[in-house]
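Hey, weird one. I pasted the Tricarboxylate-binding receptor sequence into the form twice and got a warning about non-standard characters only the second time. First submission, copied straight from the form history:
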Amino acid sequence: MKKQLLLLTLSCCLLSSGNVLAQSAYPCAVVKFVSPYPPGGTTDILARMLAPGLAKQLGTNVVVENKGGASSNIGTEFVANSASDGCTLLLGNNTGIVINQNLYKLRINPSKDLAAVAEVASVPLVLYVNASVPANTVGELVELIKNNPGKYSYASGGSGSPQHLMAEMLKLEKQLDMTHIPYRGQGPAMADVIAGQVPIAFETTTTISAQMASGRIRALATTGLVRPKNFPNIPTMKELGYSSFVVENWYGIFVAAKTPSVLIARLNKAFNTVMKESEVAASLNKMGSSDVAGTPEQFTQFINKEIPYWESLVKRTGATVD
C-alpha cells in the first residue's frame, strides 16, 4: 500500500512538472518583435513596453526590431512572409492592416497573409501645432489657413496613416489649401513639427504629453469620443462640431498566416497577461488607451468592421500616396 502511494505521489509530481514545462516552453530561442516604423513613435514605444513582459510569459528572449518604411508596408510584408512558427511577431496598426490596401499596390493581402493575435492599445489622436503658429483653437487654425492659401503644410507618419486622413478630412470639410508632408514614421514627423519645419500635425496621445509640457507645441483638440483622462482640458473635435472626427489609432499583434492555433492562443494569453501587469497597465492608461483585451476571434471581427470604414474614408477624402 505504501509503495502504491509512493508511486502515485511520484506520478502526480512528474505530471505536474510536465504541465509546468508545457506551459513555459515556447518553440523559439528568440522571438522577433517587429515594429514597422522607426524609433520614437507610438508603435515603437508600445513594442518596447510590452517586450519584457512577453519574454517573461513565454520564457524566451524577445528582441524588438524596427523595420520602417513605405508607411509600415516593409515591416508588415516581412512578417507576412516569415515562417508560420510564432517566432516573428508584428505590432501592426490600422494603417498597415486596413488602410494601406486602399492606397498602395501591396504584394501581400494583410487579411489573408497575417493572423490576428491580440489587440493591445487604442488611442485617440491630437491635432496640434508648433508654438509659433498664431492659433489657440481649431477655429482659429482653420481661419489662419483659409486666409493664407498654400502657405501652411502638415506632417504625418506616412501616406495612409490615420493622422494623414484626419488632416485630409479637415481640408475637405473646411475647403483648406494645405500641403501634406509625409515622413517614415510619427517620430520623425513630430520632431520636425517641434523644430518648426512643419507647423501642423495630428499625433497620438501616447507621444505628445512630454512635448506639450515643454511648451514647444500646442494641442488644440483630440479625436476621441470623450476627452482622454490625461488631456481633460483639451476639447474633442466632436465637441467643436466636427462629428466625423471620432477616430482612434489601434495597435495589435499579428503573425504569419497558418501559424498553429495553439501558438496564437498562447501568444494571446501572454499579451493579455502583460497588459494587466501594474506598470504596463499604468502606462497604457497614461497614453489614453482603451481596455482592448480580448480573444484573437474578437480582434479579427473588429478588423473586419474597420476595413469598410477606412476604405470609405480614403475614397471620401481623395487621399493619395504623396
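That's the output from the first submission. The warning seems to come from a hidden character in my clipboard, not from the data itself. The chain has two domains: 30-123+249-317, 124-222.
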